[in-house]
Specification:
Blueprint (H helix, E strand, L loop, with lengths): L8 E7 L5 E13 L3 E6 L3 E4 L4 E3 L4 E6 L4 E8 L2 E9 L3 E3 L2 E13 L5 E4 L1 H10 L4 H20 L8 H12 L2
Parallel strand pairs: 1-10
Antiparallel strand pairs: 1-2, 2-3, 2-4, 3-6, 4-5, 6-7, 7-8, 8-10, 9-10, 10-11
Function: Has nucleoside phosphatase activity towards nucleoside triphosphates and nucleoside diphosphates.
Keywords: Hydrolase, Magnesium, Metal-binding
Pfam families: DUF402
Length: 176
Amino acid sequence: MEIPAEGESVQIHSYKHNGHIHRVWEETVVVKATENIVIGGNDRTIVTESDGRTWVTREPAICYFHTRKWFNVIGMLRADGIHYYCNISSPFVFDQGALKYIDYDLDVKVFPDMTYILLDEDEYRQHSHEMNYPEVIDKILRRNMDYLLQLIEQQKGPFSPGFIERWYGKYSQLCR
């Protein structure tokens, strides 16, 4: 698989299981890219929803994507600390200048004190039925949700102390 270059500006495309586009982030700067991981940063980037509506992100964010994990993590730098938004999703692929993944509805919102809440379980059940998520996908997603919650509770991976700040520093240097 092709991987983006450090400093390259890419889009992020989120799809639904049925192949329809869900959301597009216009510009994210790659701060690290390996065969398995892409870390990017953005600030006040335009986001376009599937219905054409647009909005602009409010704060700097560091995005963590993995080719083998069924989730991605967005760490948002706010005045009161780092807030995380975690999407249960397919692993990403990099294609035609965009990081692409399938959003599977389930989300985890993590607060600066590392407490968290699970979101959109009703949406997951509805879409699972409407789009006929295979049982194997459900098992993979549940297993990855458990793994993600362990990372949060143990403050490992993208939840490690200083992780978001370190990559935000790199993003700031690249955007000078």
